[in-house]
Amino acid sequence: MIGYWVEIPRTNIRQAFTHSHFLGMIEREVVIKNRAGLHTRPAATLVKLAAKFKADFLIAKDGFEINGKSIIGVMTLAAEQGAKLLLRFSGPDEEEAAEAILQLFDRAFDEPT
Amino acid sequence: MTPTEPTRQEVVFRGIAASAGIVWGPAYIFQKQTPVISENSVEAGHLDAEIHRLRSAVDRSRKELAKIYEFAKQKLGDHQAKIFEAQLMILEDLVLFEAIVKRILAEQKNAEYIVHDEIEKYRRVMVAATDEYTRERALDVEDVRNRILRNLRDEKLISRLDGSPVIVAPNLAAADALILSRNTILAYVTEVGGVTSHMALLARALKIPAVVGLRQLTSAVHNGDRILVDGYAGVVVVNPSPDTIKMYEEKRERYREFEERLAGLRDLPAETPDGRRVELSANVELAEELEFIKLQGADGIGLYRSESLLLGREVFPNEEEQYREYRMLVDTMYPKRVVIRTFDIGGDKFMTSQTSRENNPFLGWRGIRVMLDRPEIFLEQLRAILRVSDRRTVSIMFPMISNIKELRRAKELVEDAKGQLRSRGLAFDDRVRIGTMIEVPAAAVIVEDLAREVDFISIGTNDLIQYLLAVDRGNDIVSGLYQEFHPAVVRFLRRIIERGKESRVRVAMCGEMAGDPLATILLLGLGLDEFSVVPKVLPEIKKIIRTVKYRDAKKIAKKALTMVTEDEMKNYLADVMKKYSPDIPREEERIQK
Q: What is the rounded distance in angstroms from the CA atom of residue B54 to the CA atom of residue B149?
């Protein structure tokens, strides 16, 4: 898993964010379950939830990595149903953040699947 | 215009009708400059002020958009207002603006430059996305960016206009169209854009006439020029003469009266006074039409042209992309029926330049022939359609069937697709209804055999008439020979409808003839079960059906079948129409298809 991350090409998007070094961090792979994908509404729910935690939250897809607390970032993911995302949490409350956010993905953002 | 100024020449522009209505008034040119962004250094001592400038620009942008959003909710309802929600959320993106602030401080550059550069990164990624949804959001991002940049320049949002102008613009963003509508806007006319753009959708929702696709218009119009807009026909007249205005005054009056009478029809069934109920459904290409179709009181969608998904694309949409489109279509129309026609495309979609072009594409590799030769693509589409059949409102229809073997093979592939979905554990309607187009004369001749294999048939008159009469109606030299009311056509239709009904399948028509008011009584009398028409003519056709007894229509059809020339037939039907529906606008004034 870690090796995969090293191989992610640096992109414009990635350069757009400066983030702290991830020492202790949580990584999870998730699949988009809801029919409509990560469109504006679920993206908003996700970003709002992430904002409640101190932990940094990053999302990677197909070599792009964006800040999961940024709506414009999440919009660029173009994550459709079935898309695989890699989530990274890092910070004092990373475990709580991961649990809450993984649950949201698991519930398919409370949208039809 | 002052009286001393010489009267300018009348100029007529033809575009695409996007929202109905006829108006005239002074032109107001609404032109947004594309911001020119210069990269300037900011002295360290001025950085705080620069950031303050950014914050107040973002703040003003947010207030503007919040107003637009509220206004949209009021005017259009929550659902349609959602198109502005994404923009508002971007303006509240703390991460984005933190990054911008950090960069201003670190690079010591002006706010305009950093805002443009930072947002452009996202916009570029979105423009390159494979799914249309994300590409559309790129427009939102662009609009937000321009809004912030304008506020950084301290320019006001143009929202107050004097008088009641016709807005003339090269292009009009939905947000601008909406904000301008707070004034008394007579009409919108733009150089680019289609009937499907957000702006066109808004214009229809706001009941403001609009014509789009008027190339070179802005260069021919000056602020204050008198301009006439015909949103029925998609025509714009600059500096109309008094005669022209008089003509359009009359046209407007005719339509106004007619529409008033149609207004009450929406919730009434397409039923004759003696109780013959037919289905009146709509032909659809684009999702944006659905709102309009529901307003027009359609019984469902009798033809969804799935090939419209291929417009402007290099590759076929995959199962998921198709599924999303179909889902939206079916859910929006629920509980009404939707007939999805599988891709009706020419083989040229698969041909690269090195492959020879077909000499005679109309008689070539097209419709079901292509799909049966490309089963992997066909199966992908069938799976997507089947997956939206779970609410039991969906039917599948095959185009260009010319023999029974093709139909059986297509049905086998439907079964294969079902098997694939079963193994994936996905829901679908096992008894999904299957239909075939009747548009090749051979299919019409064996219609009773085909009917045994399907649940419904649908007559595609455009191709059927071309093939039957051996006339390419796109060919100017012979297009006059393309005759909907050629006695051969009418007798052929009788045969198809009769044999279909004998085989106890529903007989529909989705060709243009179904939406021709002159043909309505004839088709009704021949026993057609379903008329699937372009949305615009729906109320008109319904009105005709509701005025003629089925008993009389049958007699009229019988008489029409004895006619030996098209002229005779048309004159007879025109007389009949005059008797039953004297108020239907005639010929050239007829609502444009």
A: 9
What is the span of the domain harbouring residue A41?
Answer: 2-110
Domain with B242 in it: what CATH number? 3.50.30.10
Same domain? For B56 and B98 the reply is: yes
B134 and A69 within 8 Å at the Cβ level: the answer is: no
- Kindly list the residues from chain A whose CB atom is less than 8 angstroms away from the CB atom of residue B82: 40
| Confidence grade of residue B86 (pLDDT, cut at 50, 70, 90) | confident
Starting at the earlier edge strand, list the strands of the sheet with A56-61. A26-31, A84-90, A56-61, A64-67
Evaluate the CA torsion angle B464, B469, B470, B472 in order and state its sign: negative
CB atoms closer than 10 angstroms to residue B350? 14
**A51 lies within 8 A of chain B by CB:** yes
Locate all alpha helices (DSSP H) within B429-482, ordered by sequence: 441-445, 447-453, 461-469
User: Of B90, B121, B152, at which residue does a domain stop?
Assistant: B152
Per the domain annotation, does B318 fall within a domain? yes
- Taking residues B462-486, report their average pLDDT: 88
Distance from CA of A65 to the nearest CA of B (A): 12
Q: Is the predicted pLDDT of residue B348 greater than 70, yes or no?
A: no
Q: In the predicted model, is pLDDT for residue A17 greater than 70?
A: no
CATH number of residue B441's parent domain? 3.20.20.60
Name the domain boundary from B152, B175, B198.
B152
CATH number at residue A103: 3.30.1340.10
More confident of the two residues B444 and B8: B444
Q: By mean pLDDT, which of B13-17, B61-65, B448-452 is the weakest? A: B13-17
Q: Contact A71/B141, CB-based, under 8 Å? A: no
CB-CB neighbors (< 8 A) of A37 in chain B: 131, 133, 324
Q: Suggest the residue from B87, B88, B95, B105 to mutate for an interface test with chain A (most A CBs closer than 10 A).
A: B95
Beta bridge partners of residue A90, listed in sequence order:
A56
DSSP state of B424: T
User: To the nearest whole number, what is the mean pLDDT of chain B?
Assistant: 87
Determine, for residues A78 and B121 on separate chains, whether the beta-carbon distance falls below 8 Å: no
CB-count burial class (<10 Å; 0-12, 13-18, 19+) for B475: exposed
**Residue B1 is assigned to a structural domain of this protein:** no
Q: Which residues does chain B have within 8 Å of residue A81's beta carbon, measured at their own beta carbons?
A: 320, 324
In the A/B pair of chains, how many CB contacts fall below 8 A?
76
Q: Indicate the range of B50-64, B187-201, B304-318 predicted with least confidence.
A: B187-201
A52 in contact with B, Cβ within 8 Å:
no
Catalytic residue list of A: 39
User: Cβ separation of B129 and A78 shorter than 8 Å?
Assistant: yes
Partners of B130 on chain A (C-beta within 8 Å) are 78
User: Residue B128's domain spans which residues?
Assistant: 44-152
- Mean pLDDT score, B488-502: 96
- Overall domain count for chain B: 3
Cis peptide before B335 (omega within 30 of 0): yes
Task: State pLDDT tens for residues A49-70.
Answer: 999 999 999 999 987 899 999 9
Predicted confidence (pLDDT) per residue in B514-557, tens digit: 999 999 999 999 999 999 998 878 888 999 999 999 999 999 99
Q: Are residues B255 and B314 in the same domain?
A: no
Minimum distance, in Å, between the CA of residue B43 and any CA atom of chain A: 23
